[in-house]
């Protein structure tokens, strides 16, 4: 399938989530907390990466506060200042100063003391524009998370990637490219989706 098809899906699904009411957004973010708290993976984690919602994404702030209450350290991505197309993850708490990056997404001010190597993160909760019934994820097109997750795709080491999305972001089938990293777990407000890791969806 063509790149234009991927862009058409992005446009359609972004419109879906942007059209959600404030009430829906609030109830969905509260439901997300319950769903994530039921994950077996959460039982023994110490360091978790998330993101701050934008563009109608599922609001993660209640989840972040819930993780803080469980003494789980949270980290946010920032655009790597030197390695183009890559992310760094910085510690996020009540005192963290935020700035807007070139995509108008809030991220922590770069402070080397707050950086956590990806290898030391237990879970990376991953944003997306859309997902399908096979666990394929469609991002915004920058490839940041695909590059971050690629080294850990076929190993038991490193972080677990878990996608977060509204239910309305599901589509039947996504056109995939060689660089796309499928997810074995995606959490929506109503359901936890699980797939066996596959070597043919790369």
From TrEMBL:
InterPro entries attached to this UniProt entry: FTHF_cligase, FTHF_cligase-like_sf, NagB/RpiA_transferase-like
Q: Which cofactor does it need?
A: Mg(2+)
Question: What Gene3D superfamilies does the annotation carry?
Answer: NagB/RpiA/CoA transferase-like
The EC number(s) this enzyme carries:
6.3.3.2
Q: Which UniProt keywords apply?
A: ATP-binding, Ligase, Magnesium, Metal-binding, Nucleotide-binding
What superkingdom does the record give? Bacteria
A Pfam family hit: 5-FTHF_cyc-lig
| Keyword ATP-binding set for record | yes
For the ligand (ATP), the binding residues are 6-10, 137-145
Question: What NCBIfam families does UniProt report for this protein, alphabetically?
Answer: MTHFS_bact
What protein name does the entry list? Answer: 5-formyltetrahydrofolate cyclo-ligase
Native source organism of the sequence: Vibrio hangzhouensis
What is the organism lineage in this UniProt record?
Answer: Bacteria, Pseudomonadati, Pseudomonadota, Gammaproteobacteria, Vibrionales
